[in-house]
Amino acid sequence: MFEGVRDYKTFVGHALPGSFFLIAGLWWAGKYSLWYTTLRNKSLGSTSTRLASRSTQRRLEVIEGSRIVTFCVPGMLAEQFVADGPRLHLYDYSEHHWDRLHNWQHSTMYLFFGLAGAMSLIVHTTDAAPLALDRLMLAIAFFIEGFLFLYHLHGRAMLDVHVHQLLLFCVFGEAMVSFLEVFHRGNILLELLRASLTILQGSWFWQIGFVLYSPSGAEWDQMDHNNMMFITMCYCWHLVFSLLVVMNMSVASTLIKFDPMSNAWIQEAGLLKRLLRRLTLILIHQW
Amino acid sequence: MFEGVRDYKTFVGHALPGSFFLIAGLWWAGKYSLWYTTLRNKSLGSTSTRLASRSTQRRLEVIEGSRIVTFCVPGMLAEQFVADGPRLHLYDYSEHHWDRLHNWQHSTMYLFFGLAGAMSLIVHTTDAAPLALDRLMLAIAFFIEGFLFLYHLHGRAMLDVHVHQLLLFCVFGEAMVSFLEVFHRGNILLELLRASLTILQGSWFWQIGFVLYSPSGAEWDQMDHNNMMFITMCYCWHLVFSLLVVMNMSVASTLIKFDPMSNAWIQEAGLLKRLLRRLTLILIHQW
Amino acid sequence: MFEGVRDYKTFVGHALPGSFFLIAGLWWAGKYSLWYTTLRNKSLGSTSTRLASRSTQRRLEVIEGSRIVTFCVPGMLAEQFVADGPRLHLYDYSEHHWDRLHNWQHSTMYLFFGLAGAMSLIVHTTDAAPLALDRLMLAIAFFIEGFLFLYHLHGRAMLDVHVHQLLLFCVFGEAMVSFLEVFHRGNILLELLRASLTILQGSWFWQIGFVLYSPSGAEWDQMDHNNMMFITMCYCWHLVFSLLVVMNMSVASTLIKFDPMSNAWIQEAGLLKRLLRRLTLILIHQW
Amino acid sequence: MFEGVRDYKTFVGHALPGSFFLIAGLWWAGKYSLWYTTLRNKSLGSTSTRLASRSTQRRLEVIEGSRIVTFCVPGMLAEQFVADGPRLHLYDYSEHHWDRLHNWQHSTMYLFFGLAGAMSLIVHTTDAAPLALDRLMLAIAFFIEGFLFLYHLHGRAMLDVHVHQLLLFCVFGEAMVSFLEVFHRGNILLELLRASLTILQGSWFWQIGFVLYSPSGAEWDQMDHNNMMFITMCYCWHLVFSLLVVMNMSVASTLIKFDPMSNAWIQEAGLLKRLLRRLTLILIHQW
């Protein structure tokens, strides 16, 4: 079924980050939708509710930040110490060339996202830094991801270059939206747009895997202009898909009733579990 | 008179969207001009008038949204099921190529505009979503239109590429203006600029039809640089035309007197009819 | 001294718009500097002074708008009806090519600037339109100027293309600054930046005339890369020059004392003359 | 060890501006971090403290501006009058070519930074000009630096062009951030981002020196695509380094206690010395 071990590995190498971005996008879509609903319901509630939800928010942010860090650090290490990783060797002196630059580049990307997560942790656990710092670091992390991809494509086939260029649209889009959030923090539209673009990035990584290193062994004609045109249109369909997912989650979240009691209960009995269960329910409810 | 059936079809294929964008542009120019006038007169009116005009606004938005949807859904279906449409077949397995990608691309564009219309409906009938969502979706729809055109032009003749590139200026311009409206909602200048660019897009579609698939059978030299220079200038004249139309409608709308009585009457007796009649009067008044 | 009549004409064709932009830039630098000073002094003055200065402002704007119109309409006519103008003929049917497109392009540019002037007149004489409309039209006029230049350069020599590309930096810069003024009206920095860029454009037109159609008959090697590098640097010097001029005028304007008496007098006895004299004095005072 | 005198000179020619930008970036990181801390502590202090710190700020700005001027004027002169400088000769009439354009270009860059420093001096010593003028001039100075580099690279080897293009990212980034500060003055994130990008620029100048004119005499293969990919990644590491430096300084500055007494003392007994010592302490404290 697979052409070879290498192709299979590369397919997984695209599916893995794709899955992570999909999860991140869904998480953000759910988080910001629920907050937006809470904010609208809160006008009816008391001050104590408001304080409670603010501390809930902070705890969610801390959880998110620590998850990002605990995912990026092993990711960096894995890229270095897997079977054919560079093991922190940067230059192969025997053959006079750079050693496995792709692994190093992926490590660098993980590093920036890890830094963004760490920054988010610092911002939300201490009062030392201004709040908007987490968005600025996120914008830088996305920018660097796109920046490294940009100089990654030299000398590849036309279709290969094209599918990666399409990826750049959403990566730089996310960088721009995150940067705008530095000045317009709490704008629900920007937050949901970021979530949509992240889901788009995730599903597009899967698409790249299927187009370039298809597990079924099918090969696309890299020089056919019709393939280019189809892929461009396909990208738009991924965007429609991600927009609809985010919208459905957003609408579903408004159907959930928040009452102060449950809100207090959340804080006591495993906040994350309940929220994840809710998100799952919303997702199941949709399909 | 026509070189062939195919050329005629392509001419109609440019004239049709052109007409729709022209109508949309004129509608927006009229709507926002009237609102701006009402807003200025309202400072003299009572609270009840203000409430009345707000519900009028909402009804107009709902009508606009439903019109867009009822136009885009048949458009999508027509692209699929016309005589030589793909009928939802995406890949021709017998000849191993993608099936009528142009129809599919047009369907995709309709899909995004339909989505923008549906979003506008949801925003203005329920309170679930933030208001600015309609502009964000509009910005995305225009961006996708330009995005698909951008990768549409490979391997065509110089003049053909050029007239479509000029189209991109106003399409991306509309996307940018709509995105700015997310942050500066109700800015009359941005709204009228959007209307102007939409009229420009509509009239330019007609121009493309006449240049590339002229019904009179005249053919332009696709490689003559003088033709390029003339077409560029011609584009500017279309812009002047659209700016003047929007300005005239805007000025004419200030001559119409709004009194609370008629405003209440509007709500009772066929809102749309009267408004369309007014817009027609304004247009007749101009020429 | 001149290589031929045609070169001389082209030199004048660059010097003339250059002079007009120089005058416009100096006028703006003076106008906004004086207003800024008045505004700062006004906090000490009475309400009547404030009203007086506001009506003075409006009258200055009206004078500016009408000057622009009375300059652009003859400009358009001159481009059409000079000795070798197209006289409103667009297409030469005998030889089957477009007729004197350059004159038509210049007419188009005049048209947009004339429209911007007319809009400024309408905005400042009636209350029908929002104030920021004058800046929006100015932004469009500058954008169209750059847009037409952009497709003007096909097939010329390297240095010729380069000096015109440098011009585009300040033209699009002015368009961007004017567009920003729609949202940040009255920001003295944007106003002075616009004035500086306009002076830069004016002096650069003169420079282009001297480089490409030097009256002394000297010819530059169009293919020498050193010339390109020198011209780029030269452009920066023009910018320094224009920045220093605007700054000096700005500083000098703060030395002038405004008292309510003279302010009232201005309105009665030839506003423009006195102001122009003042500007001249400032300029003389500098050099 | 060195290949020749020329290479050594060019290495120093990159190390020197690199060091200056490093110092400027560290200075800004320290200055804005301390101000941010002071601002947060000030809410506990009295009015007199607030006034004191405002005058301290102004004095710091004046010192900064005068330092920039006293560094740029000799820089300009040095570029002209060093052993092989052009000594103000612009054109070599004997050989008919421009004379040492590189020195002239560097002089021009110094000129713009000097102008920015002088403007900062004027803004902070007099009340004549609006505050944001210093940022606008800084934006223009960075823009011109990037602009001159952009047309500097014609006909060089691939790697040479690439390392300089990477430099442009941070130079234009600084220009953009400074321009945004015109509208968002006092935004600590923009200020620290500017500091980071300046440190990045400084360390990248050193990197360019080591890559292109290595003092160890090692030569990089200018045509190897792997080198390109490594250099791109290396640029990201420089960014991480500069972000971490700024963050550490920022966090360290919050550990310093400011009390009104010491604040008053600062004004009396050599402001700059103490601050520099503090910055040094912070730096030592970090490593």
TrEMBL record, chains A, B, C, D:
<dbReference type="InterPro" id="IPR006904">
    <property type="entry name" value="DUF716"/>
</dbReference>
<feature type="transmembrane region" description="Helical">
    <location>
        <begin position="195"/>
        <end position="216"/>
    </location>
</feature>
<dbReference type="GO" id="GO:0016020">
    <property type="term" value="C:membrane"/>
</dbReference>
<dbReference type="Pfam" id="PF04819">
    <property type="entry name" value="DUF716"/>
</dbReference>
<feature type="transmembrane region" description="Helical">
    <location>
        <begin position="228"/>
        <end position="247"/>
    </location>
</feature>
<feature type="transmembrane region" description="Helical">
    <location>
        <begin position="136"/>
        <end position="154"/>
    </location>
</feature>
<keyword id="KW-0812">Transmembrane</keyword>
<feature type="transmembrane region" description="Helical">
    <location>
        <begin position="166"/>
        <end position="183"/>
    </location>
</feature>
<keyword id="KW-1133">Transmembrane helix</keyword>
<feature type="transmembrane region" description="Helical">
    <location>
        <begin position="12"/>
        <end position="30"/>
    </location>
</feature>
<dbReference type="InterPro" id="IPR042127">
    <property type="entry name" value="TMEM45"/>
</dbReference>
<protein>
    <submittedName>
        <fullName>Transmembrane protein 45a</fullName>
    </submittedName>
</protein>
<keyword id="KW-0472">Membrane</keyword>
<feature type="transmembrane region" description="Helical">
    <location>
        <begin position="107"/>
        <end position="124"/>
    </location>
</feature>
<comment type="similarity">
    <text>Belongs to the TMEM45 family.</text>
</comment>
